[in-house]
User: Fold this.
Amino acid sequence: MMMVIVLLDYTNYVWMLPTPSGVSMESVDMIHVLKWRPLQEPCSTRVLYSVQFQGEFELKFLNGSWVDAPECQQTPHTYCDLTFDLGSDSDYNIRVRGQCGSQLSPWTTLSRPFNRRDTVLRAPEMVVSAVGDALQVSFDKLPLTAIVRVTVWERGDEQEADVYMMPAEENMLHIAALQEGAEYCVRAQTILDTHLHSSSSDTHCVSITGPDATWKSPTTATATVIIMAGLLFAVFWFIAHCRPEACQKYFQKEPLPRPLQPDWDIQIPMYPKEAELYEQIGVVPRVDPHELRSSNLEDS
Assistant:
């Protein structure tokens, strides 16, 4: 009997804080956040909270042990993001307790196990724009591991719509080679598995203008040709009828600014060319010996 009283007294001493209340799980688009109400008991220090979870693996293979949520140990906040801790499609038990100095509250366990397949999927947020002859569909804040089903059709012909399946991590869908001048409508839906779908987004419709739609119109092309021909005619007429003095006036070379003009006079001295020295040489004509002998014979 005394032992029971001592244990009761020890238990009352340890568990002086009340248990956290209002524990609930809020899961939207695969973001899982555990929330609870703050303790109202007076505390000389700041009240801190710790969170643990227990999944199928802990129950079957680890003798029902609990795992500390790494980001939610002795935290002053009254919420805990468990998105990356609850990594499988199994049921999880989750609990939280408070701490004031050395005093601990009892654990408060979530009323029923949580499975991430119970998340609430919202209609995807998207932006649709026309780029040349293509559509670009951009998404923001898509759930992890989700697939987006994008339905595209030409306005008035929804029965012939095309369906595209895009992984959430890509964030953008590019649909090329569409008909210029046509209007296309887009609607999207988020899918996690065969049984978990979001509602469809609002329908967005845009017109495909093409890369050069403005310049391809006959009126614009004709006006452009006329203007260019007029400009070329004016230039050639001015060149042909420009008088020399007028041309010099309009096309004269601009003088250098005064700071850039040289302020020195460069003179190169010129020296008279020196007379070449030479010596007169007499030239004696060459005499053939045979002619000289014949001449001597005739003289004798």
User: Anything to note?
Assistant: The radius of gyration is 50 Å. Confidence is low (pLDDT under 50) at residues 1-13.
